[in-house]
Amino acid sequence: MKVSSKGEYALRALILLGNNPGKVLGIQEISEKTLVSVHYLEQLLLQLKKLGYVTSKRGAKGGYTLHLQAEEINIGEVIRDLEGPLSPMGCASITKYEPCPLEGGCQLKPLWTLVRDTIAYVLERTTLEDLLQNRITKLEGDDFVVVKRTSRPTGS
Predict the structure, then answer these.
(1) How much helix, strand and coil, in percent to the nearest 5, is found in the chain?
(2) Bridge partners, 142 (sequence order)
(3) Which of 38, 57, 107, 145 has CB atoms 3.0–4.6 Å from 62's, for a disulfide?
């Protein structure tokens, strides 16, 4: 799995919108604050709208705002929706499995499966709200703390 500019820029836009709840932001402002071209943002925001993450308003004071609450936006879902499977290899993918002729005795598949599971574990437990509140923590020793919350987000 590789997150392309598409996934990165979409997350930048969602973070900006999440930091401005209820405020309609114009495409030019989003472009300036995320350092993404207006042309590319138009395509991304249209896709995010079709996926139900943002809503748009037309007119002189038009623009974009979040359609969902930040705690309802799961980063794993956003990445899958935009980038496809989280697995680094097709043979380890759950959603887009691709058979391999060497799979029967493959000693790499357990590694790719672990990588997939680890990526999924982190992304699926992270919401936009977690990003906005800087709840992402680093690995320390044997501790695997991904998101520090005082309580579970609603909808989980």
Answers:
(1) 45, 10, 45
(2) none
(3) 57
Q: Are 21 and 14 in contact (CB under 8 A)?
A: no
Whether residue 144 has pLDDT greater than 70? no
Cα gap 25→65, rounded to integer Å: 7
Burial class (CB in 10 A: 0-12, 13-18, 19+), 22: exposed
Sign of CA dihedral 120, 124, 129, 135: negative
Q: What is the pLDDT of residues 81-93, one digit of tens each?
A: 999 888 888 888 8
Q: Quick: pLDDT tens for 41-55.
A: 999 999 999 999 999
Closest CA to 36 of 50, 59, 15: 15
CA distances from 141 to 4, 24, 111, 134 (A): 29, 43, 21, 21
CATH class of 5-66: mainly alpha
